[in-house]
Amino acid sequence: GSRVARKDLKRLTKVYVEQFLEYCEPILADPETPPHILKVSEDKTSARLEFPPQDAEGFTVAITADLYGIVVHAGELEHVHFEEGLHITQDIENAFGYARDLLSPKMRLLERLAGSKVYWSGSEYFDGKVWRFEHWTGSLFFNYFGKRTSHLKMNRQLPARIDPL
To answer: What is the superkingdom listed in this entry's lineage (predicted)?
Structure first.
């Protein structure tokens, strides 16, 4: 019963992580790839590729592959899941494309803080004329009485891609 299901799930997760790592290989071998950290669990059921910010205005971008699929993380709170039921390779390609844009001035991150903690975060993309929201995430529990501030962050580790007409 449940033991078989758990075993199958672990096997499928390993396949997901293996494909993620295979996709990473040529990217990480490219000298143009920004500074990064790759972490893989001992049992190969999770992997995380992290691009730390390169200046005070930047933010961390990370891609994880694990039991929950492929997730792109931006800053402290923002995250987007790529498990649209597509082929695993397509999920991985979509996640890397999104992460690539987050590493460029094509996208930016707006974070709202209560006290010193981020309680709301949204990614925006520049459409050539104005900034538009792509995705947002909020925290249900936060210091409601904390002083509210916000800041914009942008990475410049890669050049912005030019959109096809």
So the answer is: Bacteria
Categorize the per-residue pLDDT at 1 as very low, low, confident or very high, splitting at 50, 70 and 90: very low
Q: How many C-beta neighbours within 10 Å does residue 80 have?
A: 18
pLDDT surpassing 70 at residue 117: yes
Alpha-carbon span 152 to 134, nearest angstrom: 15
Query: Do 127 and 91 fall within a single domain?
Result: no
Backbone angles phi, psi at 148, to 5 degrees: -90, 130
Angle at 129 between CA 127 and CA 132, to 5 degrees: 50
Tally of domains within the chain: 2
Q: Is 45 within 8 Å of 67 (Cβ atoms)?
A: yes
Rg of the chain in Å (alpha carbons):
17
Query: Which tens digit of pLDDT belongs to each residue from 79-93?
Result: 787 765 557 888 899
Does residue 158 sit within a domain?
Answer: no
Number of C-beta neighbours around residue 153 at 10 A: 18
d(CA 85, CA 130): 32
Q: Are residues 95 and 145 in the same domain?
A: no
pLDDT of residue 49: 98
Say if residues 82 and 73 touch (Cβ distance below 8 Å).
no
